[in-house]
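new request in #modeling-help
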Amino acid sequence: MLDIKNLSASVDGKKILDGFSLKIKSGEVHAIMGPNGSGKSTLANVLTGKNGYEVEGQILYQGKDLLTLPIEERAQKGLFMAFQYPLEIPGVNTNNFLKTSLNTIRKGKGLKEIDSLDFLKLVKAKTKNLKIDEKILNRQLNVGFSGGEKKKNEILQMTILEPTLAILDETDSGLDIDAIKIVSDGVNSLRSKERSFLIITHYQRLLDYIKPDFVHVLINGKIAKTGCSELALELDKIGYEEIGAST
Amino acid sequence: MKQQELEKSKEYKYGFTTDIESVRAPKGLNKEVIRFISKIKKEPEWMLNWRLKAYDRLKNIKEPNWQKPKYPKIDYQNLYYYSAPKSAKDKPKSLDEVDPKLLETYAKLGIPLKEQEKLSGVAVDAIFDSVSVATTFKDTLTEKGIIFCSISEAIQKHPDLVKKYIGSVIPITDHYFATLNSAVFTDGSFVYIPEGVRCPMELSTYFRINASETGQFERTLIIADKGSYVSYLEGCTAPMRDENQLHAANVELIALDDAEIKYSTIQNWYPGDENGKGGIYNFVTKRGACRGKNSKISWTQVETGSAITWKYPSCILQGDNSVGEFYSVAVTNNYQKADTGTKMIHLGKNTKSKIISKAISAGHADNTYRGLVRISSKAKNSRNYTQCDSLLMGNKCGAHTIPYIENRNSSSNVEHEATTSKISEEQLFYCNQRGLNQEEAVGLIVNGFCKEVLQQLPMEFAVEAQKLVGISLEGSVG
């Protein structure tokens, strides 16, 4: 599904990712942990195509070169990112945004646009499953949302857009335990053989609910250590510094 | 067509001219030209004298120069003041008699009159250059006693109404461009809604500048008699011209007791090219008088075109309990300039006004909201609410808000809110990540920004306006 080879990324000449390589197969859940400034968010941004990075190396997604594609085409090919800081867009109705988004992605896949009625049914079912208050659908996109509401809204979008590869960029940061449950329920409900996840987090806590197949420790722009879910527990005890020193 | 022209016409969808021989008044501004216009329109003497009075006044006044956008000096002697398609000399009795070339032009503009007549339920008084060529739905309107015709026709057939109201809101002495219009106006629309009648359809007119070097001086007069209601739509596109073209229209609205007028505009005239060459000067005077008690006038405008837009659709709230509203979206891109807003003059008791202005600036453009709220000492218990929001795209454009507030009595209340924001790279990235391309993302954000205004427009116009706002900003985010 995803094959990252020797990826480097710099901002204003400062190298953030440095010889990063990672393979994710269909159906796998990978967690990336690491200290502040280790390049976690940069990895998510480079994968989704955000401007402002000088990028070297190669990323193959479903066998095709990802780096040459514009942001929206990556999204249309099933790449989704739950934002660490979801953006507020005043005047734009959340429901309308979700529908527009779903339809552009369906169009990209060669599917017919969904009509308003079917969409409403879909979105109501999803909010119910995730125990999200459907009132947020009629509010302006993320405007005046609490931190928790914003993150829940990201997960709602993920379950509606049904991506092939979902990246969660520190979605658990700042969430209470109930909200973390909603986030992990969202991820777990989507887990399937055809879908992969890349979960970026600071804390082991989220991984109590979402059992990853692999845990990677990112230090200074490259993977310092890879293990199974027990590695996260170990990290929690000894900290990143030790891991960094031991490699 | 030369290749260069071809390319240009691609950039501006409505940039074409129709090859129809024109009847023109000789170049220049003088009494002879005014007499020529008046004669060709078979006007009564009082109308000619009114024009000449305006012309005399014009000689003694100067163009105003307090506005923000400056423009090169206009040589008024080097303009044509009258130009009409030749075939219109014998006015068509029905659509079938309309010059097929004119109909073709409208089709290009997306106004198939025939279809519109049948399908959309919109009566169109189409203005091609200076002469009204076709008016539809006349029968339905006549039944209700509604008069909807060209102002030239109204001067001949309904002289008492015209004489009573023309110049009563915008006097011939008002200011340079209004006075100029009074002297040389060529055509425009006239609407009269009789007492107690609710106009059963949206009245609509499309304007178009066609012949080269032709100043456009439209004059529109709408009167809503006691207890009546009318919604009027004005939309326009202009073909591409290299020289700057002056447009100085006058629009007067009069609402008597318990009457309501809703006036909506979409202005999409040629804005000039991406280097600021060419484009229309849109110097328009629009003013409504809420003359009767409980009357209401509501202006909605979507201004996306013209090199310079300079207009302040205003309300004079004379009647007690009368209401004035102004909803505006002004979009400027490249080197376009807009200085627009409104005046709300509260004279009657318990009068209310509301101003919602949304300005969007991109490229090197400059956008100014300028507004006056004046509450006189007699306008007890009056209220105004003003909200001015500006949205900037890029860092070379400008947005300015200049509100003038004069409140002369303590029982009245004036509120003013203003914000300035910018479309951020992050917002665009967020939308892109959800599958929307750059244009779609900008369209979404911008339409969200001006939704409050766009939803004031009648349905069929709202969709067109939404598209237009998006198109006007195409390529402004790189």
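bot summary: Helices of chain A lie at 40-48, 71-76, 94-108, 116-129, 147-161, 177-190, 230-246.
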